């Protein structure tokens, strides 16, 4: 299986066995580095705003440059963090049900906060939908085409395949686990590509853009926020897939499979709600 | 004029930062391995893990120890408290005279905005996080927070957030500070029209606010996971202490309130920069108010619940008896948590919203007074016939109850639509909420800072100075904010830098009160810093003689063990009761109804 040899921390292929700073136990640079990267993203946004217009304070390139650097730093921090917290000692540390429990609670609480994140945008949409809708819903391209139906089917299907993968690893069936996981990630990627294609159609061919008025704000706000979430979900599943390909996970050790699944299912449920109220709901009764 | 004010503030800030740096340099010996306080590797069991921490500044940058992070939060919050306090001192000085004297009206608006945001987001929430980080793991017998590293990153996002929020005050090109008030009402904050709110300073301010919200939400997720999963074997839901209950409820509120504000802020930023129309249309201003107050009112309880927890925790220690009606204090906390999401539109009674909606929000707003009153009566009853010891933390607790009654009762009047229509946007509102945020929340913060001073410094503060601090704060608070309530009755509108001459006397009174407060806080800082540096070390693990009244608690037991690490013992465990009103080993997993707490 290629997993037993990972027991040995002195195995050559492990990039680093000691956390940073070395030898100080719990102390770690990773939160600080990651925080610097994350804060850098905000500074980059600030620089971008300062670089706009005729009387810009900084070069228009400062923002994008800072953004790339910050995301790089953020990813480095996240890599070091996740690697040392979860990956490097994956087989040698104890499979602790308490630790699994707290990670699940953490994900659950995070999903609760996500409800509120989406809530503001749905609130805006309901607010205009309940208002003078006839005058707002003008010049909007056809929303409920075959693309949305295909995309929705793909995303629901990906939730099912992910569930199969999860069940497989619980039964220690690695072959099935891996194949269903690959299918899930592929379906997710196709969904994202479909969303990009939809944006392309709307923006380039239909002339329906972010600045096209009240409905456009709701449409691009909600689908954009959801698209970011699917992308993050795909990254999480990608990380799980890479770790699975490297031989990790077993029936006793699959916490990150279940937390990533919780996130993916959540994003799927939000999408179904979004299709019903935003795509279908906008056109019903007009 | 504006330049003068800004210059004065910059100089003040500079002096202050130098003082902080000097203090930190004295407190922390950069080259030593000896921790300032709370160090050591408490509860670490992994054999390969070294118990030492890196030395000097690296220790603080790399720490994931909840006690260290608590101290970082505390230092950050107190710094913000000083900044926000100095801002309002400048404003109060301007208000001595009806006309424009010291600073320009626009600079006054900037200070007004930043004072509010600083006190609520950069002082209020972090000082609570300081207490919660330091104490909750000790009180629930956890090794650390559920996610120590997320704990660290949640803190380290805050300093850049503060810099972005204050960016307009720094001399960067033509950036000016936001003047939107802390409510950031649209269309003003969208930057349209002839005003100067299109300035990028507002964008930076919004970005900083969003970042601080992300940090706060991460902290809340961490507290929820910690309290649900990290409780020790003896700590059940039945005997969970009151402070942890309030932190848990607060975290639940943060979870649904802050991300919603975050989305609303991003929508506002898109309106300002990318031509979206979230808040531009007819009704956009109302929508912003709905979204903002859907966050904003729970935020009030985010700020007040843990301080209520501190008072519920500390006050019984000096009343010589258990908290009266413990269960009802918990229930009222949960009730406030639930109701707090159903009251937001009472901030909007005067907007011309649908009268039927208005009436329902009035009903819920009046209803939320009930659990608040339940708590108040429980505090009073706890002291009734108790053996009250008027130590500084106890004085602050009693001051809290007193000020909270005034702040709360004035709030009940505001919850009533007809009264609110008269008093809306007057100084009455300002007086009301300052009685709560300064008179109650900050007082509870001081009570906690004094009560646990030996715990986190290993030393005792100077008692006379502590009492002077209390009395100056109590008198200053009541002069300042009672004058504001009277100003409101007289019809003085909020947020104005200039006013009619008829209000001059009361405004001067309020300024006098603010200066008394300032003197009190200078004494506090002096006492806090000097005692930390020079007071003799505490040798007793029970500095408040809690064992005499059977009110000894887990955090002091931890402190005692820390003091005696040289001597291997563990026999004290049995004396410790979690604060949940019942001896830990008597309650079989919540199956047995705990009897009344305070009937002895």
Automatic annotation (TrEMBL), chain A:
GO terms for biological process: aerobic electron transport chain. Its main location: membrane. Keywords: Cell membrane, Membrane, Transmembrane, Transmembrane helix. It is a multi-pass membrane protein. It comes from Halobellus salinus. GO terms for cellular component: plasma membrane. The chain crosses the membrane at residues 29-50, 62-82, 103-127, 147-165, 177-197, 217-242, 263-282. This is Cytochrome c oxidase subunit III. Belongs to the cytochrome c oxidase subunit 3 family. The lineage of its organism: Archaea, Methanobacteriati, Methanobacteriota, Stenosarchaea group, Halobacteria. Residues 18-283 form the Heme-copper oxidase subunit III family profile domain. It is found in: Cell membrane. GO terms for molecular function: cytochrome-c oxidase activity. Gene3D superfamilies: Cytochrome c oxidase, subunit III, four-helix bundle.
TrEMBL record, chain B:
The chain crosses the membrane at residues 6-25, 69-91, 111-140, 152-172, 204-228, 240-270, 290-316, 328-349, 361-381, 393-415, 435-456, 468-489, 509-529. InterPro entries: Cyt_c_oxase-like_su1_dom, Cyt_c_oxase-like_su1_sf, Cyt_C_Oxase_1, Cyt_c_Oxase_su1_BS. SUPFAM superfamilies: Cytochrome c oxidase subunit I-like (SSF81442). One of its GO terms (biological process) is respiratory electron transport chain. It is found in: Membrane. One of its GO terms (molecular function) is cytochrome-c oxidase activity. It is a multi-pass membrane protein. GO terms for cellular component: membrane. Residues 570-600 are annotated as: Disordered. Residues 60-556 form the Cytochrome oxidase subunit I profile domain. It holds the Pfam family COX1. Keywords: Electron transport, Heme, Iron, Membrane, Metal-binding, Respiratory chain, Transmembrane, Transmembrane helix, Transport. PANTHER family: CYTOCHROME C OXIDASE SUBUNIT 1. This is Cytochrome-c oxidase. It comes from Halobellus salinus.
């Amino acid at each position: 299986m290629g997993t037993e040899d990972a027991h040995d921390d002195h195995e050559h292929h492990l990039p680093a066995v000691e956390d940073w700073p070395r030898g100080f136990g719990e102390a770690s640079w990773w939160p600080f580095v990651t925080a610097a990267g994350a804060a850098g993203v905000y500074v980059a946004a600030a620089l971008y705003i300062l670089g706009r217009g005729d009387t810009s304070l900084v070069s228009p390139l400062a923002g994008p440059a800072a953004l790339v650097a910050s995301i790089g730093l953020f990813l480095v921090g996240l890599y070091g963090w996740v690697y040392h917290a979860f990956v490097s000692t994956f087989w040698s540390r104890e499979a602790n049900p308490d630790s699994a429990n707290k990670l699940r609670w953490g994900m659950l609480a995070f999903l609760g906060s996500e409800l509120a994140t989406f809530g503001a945008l749905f609130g805006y949409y309901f607010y205009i939908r309940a208002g003078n809708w006839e005058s707002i819903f003008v010049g909007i391209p056809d929303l409920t085409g075959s693309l949305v139906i295909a995309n929705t089917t793909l995303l629901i299907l990906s939730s099912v395949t992910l569930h199969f993968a999860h069940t497989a690893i619980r039964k220690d069936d690695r072959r099935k686990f891996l194949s269903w996981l690959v299918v899930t990630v592929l379906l997710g990627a196709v969904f994202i590509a479909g969303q990009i294609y939809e944006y392309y159609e709307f923006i380039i061919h239909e002339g329906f853009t972010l600045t096209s008025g009240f409905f456009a704000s709701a449409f691009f706000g909600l689908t954009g926020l959801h698209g970011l979430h699917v992308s993050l979900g795909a990254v999480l599943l990608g990380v799980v897939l890479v770790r699975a390909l490297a031989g990790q996970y077993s029936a006793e050790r699959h916490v990150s499979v279940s937390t990533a699944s919780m996130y993916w299912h959540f994003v799927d449920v939000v999408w179904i709600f979004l299709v019903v109220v935003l795509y279908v709901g906008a056109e019903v009764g007009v | 004029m504006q330049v003068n004010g800004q210059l004065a503030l910059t100089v003040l800030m500079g002096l202050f930062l130098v003082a902080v740096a000097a203090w930190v340099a004295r407190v922390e010996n950069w080259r030593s391995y000896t921790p300032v306080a709370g160090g050591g590797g408490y509860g670490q069991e992994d054999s390969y893990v070294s118990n030492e921490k890196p030395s000097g500044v690296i220790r603080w940058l790399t720490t994931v120890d909840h006690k260290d992070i608590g101290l970082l939060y505390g230092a950050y919050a107190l710094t913000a408290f000083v900044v926000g306090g100095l801002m309002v001192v400048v404003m109060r000085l301007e208000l001595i005279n009806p006309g424009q004297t010291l600073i320009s009206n626009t600079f006054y608006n900037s200070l007004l905005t930043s004072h509010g945001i600083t006190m609520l987001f950069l002082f209020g929430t972090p000082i609570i996080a300081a207490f919660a980080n330091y104490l909750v793991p000790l009180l629930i017998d956890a090794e650390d927070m559920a996610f120590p590293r997320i704990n660290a990153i949640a803190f380290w996002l805050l300093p850049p957030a503060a810099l972005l929020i204050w960016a307009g005050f720094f001399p960067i090109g033509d950036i000016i500070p936001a003047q939107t008030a802390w409510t950031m009402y649209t269309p003003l904050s969208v930057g349209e029209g002839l005003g100067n709110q299109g300035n990028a300073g507002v964008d930076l301010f919004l970005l900083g606010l969003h970042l601080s919200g992300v940090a706060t939400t991460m902290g809340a997720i961490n507290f929820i996971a910690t309290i649900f999963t990290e409780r020790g074997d003896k700590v059940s839901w039945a005997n969970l202490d009151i402070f942890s209950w309030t932190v848990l409820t607060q975290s639940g509120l943060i979870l649904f309130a802050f991300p919603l504000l975050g989305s609303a802020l991003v929508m506002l930023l898109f309106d300002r920069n990318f031509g979206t129309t979230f808040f531009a249309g007819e009704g956009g201003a109302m929508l912003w108010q709905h979204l903002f107050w859907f966050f904003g009112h729970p935020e009030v309880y985010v700020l007040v619940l843990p301080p209520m927890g501190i008072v519920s925790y500390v006050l019984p220690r000096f009343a010589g008896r258990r908290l009266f009606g413990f269960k009802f204090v918990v229930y009222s906390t949960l009730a406030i948590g639930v109701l707090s999401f159903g009251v937001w539109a009472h901030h909007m009674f005067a907007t011309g919203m649908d009268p039927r909606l208005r009436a329902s929000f009035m009903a819920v707003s009046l209803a939320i007074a009930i659990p608040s009153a339940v708590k108040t009566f429980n505090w009073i009853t706890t002291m009734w016939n108790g053996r009250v010891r008027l130590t500084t933390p106890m004085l602050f607790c009693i001051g809290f109850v007193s000020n909270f009654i005034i702040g709360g009762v004035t709030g009940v009047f505001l919850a009533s639509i007809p009264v609110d229509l008269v008093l809306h946007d007057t100084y009455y509102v300002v007086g009301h909420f300052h009685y709560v945020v300064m008179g109650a929340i900050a007082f509870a913060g001081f009570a906690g800072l004094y009560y646990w001073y030996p715990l986190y410094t290993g030393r005792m503060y100077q008692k006379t100075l502590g009492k002077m601090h209390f009395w100056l704060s109590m008198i200053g608070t009541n002069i300042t904010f009672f004058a504001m309530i009277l100003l409101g009755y007289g019809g003085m509108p909020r947020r104005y830098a200039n006013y009619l001459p008829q209000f001059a006397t009361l405004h001067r009174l309020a300024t006098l009160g603010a200066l008394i407060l300032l003197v009190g806080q200078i004494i506090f800082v002096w006492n806090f810093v000097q005692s930390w540096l020079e007071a003799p070390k505490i040798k007793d693990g029970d500095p408040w003689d809690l064992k005499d009244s059977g009110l000894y608690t887990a955090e002091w037991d931890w402190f005692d063990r820390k003091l005696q690490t040289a001597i291997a013992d563990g026999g004290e465990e049995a004396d410790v009761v979690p604060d949940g009103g019942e001896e830990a080993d008597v309650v079989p997993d919540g199956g047995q109804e705990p009897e009344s707490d305070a009937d002895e």
